[in-house]
Write a structure and sequence with these properties.
202 residues, 9 helices, four-stranded antiparallel beta sheet, three-stranded antiparallel beta sheet, Muramoyl-pentapeptide Carboxypeptidase, domain 2
Length: 202
């Protein structure tokens, strides 16, 4: 059987389309994604695996239509919402129950969350935390996912960890050259214990 390469759960892609359908710019974004891909996502099951390039294509289309800042907010909000969704709810609830609202401790659950959403899509390493920051490294980055706009969206998703921890914060992609085998973000946060939405990452 052929190796499918990097893949992503259909539930994640379906959630992107569901959020777009609630937005004024949603029809334009869905049109940019294309009827073929939208149809395949709609028809597929939430636990089905889709090629990671489908996720990349949808992400680039969303950035094209919404613009960088609005798309940043979109992907951060989407990941925050996924903490209450069918795939990540149990993981997020357990992480908070075990570690409380410590961003550095919660970050150590990123590899588990990634493995629920992706396969053959790289491996996360979580660095040692310093006061107010922790380094997040995605090693073995597949070439199909090595796109600066896509990696920006990943940073926005990682930024939602600050929202889960009820602090102000964001993940910033560190300088890299396209083709590097890994991508590195630094998640920084303040001590203010209050939920925050939006913001730029990546």
């Amino acid at each position: 059987m052929p190796d499918p390469g990097p893949v992503i759960r259909g539930r994640h892609l379906k959630a992107l389309l569901e959020r777009l359908r609630t937005m004024p710019q949603g029809p334009s974004a869905l049109a940019r994604i294309g009827a073929g891909l939208v149809g395949r996502i709609d028809e597929g099951g939430g636990l089905d695996w889709f090629p990671a390039e489908d996720n990349v294509a949808a992400t680039l289309a969303i950035y094209d239509v919404l613009g960088p800042m609005a798309a940043d907010r979109f992907f951060r909000a989407q990941m925050k919402a996924s903490f209450d969704g069918p795939i990540l709810r149990t993981l997020a609830t357990t992480a908070v129950a075990v570690f409380g609202y410590d961003p550095a401790a919660l970050a150590r659950w990123i590899p588990r969350a990634w493995d629920l959403l992706f396969r053959q899509a790289g491996t996360w390493r979580i660095g040692e935390a310093t006061p107010g920051s922790v380094t997040l490294t995605l090693a073995g980055l597949p070439p199909v996912m090595d796109d600066p706009t896509y990696l920006r969206s990943v940073g926005c998703a990682m930024s939602a960890l600050a929202d889960l921890a009820r602090v102000q914060g964001a993940a910033t992609l560190q300088p890299r050259t396209r083709g590097d085998a890994e991508a590195v973000w630094v998640l920084r946060w303040s001590a203010a214990a209050r939920p925050v939405t939006g913001g730029r990452a990546g």
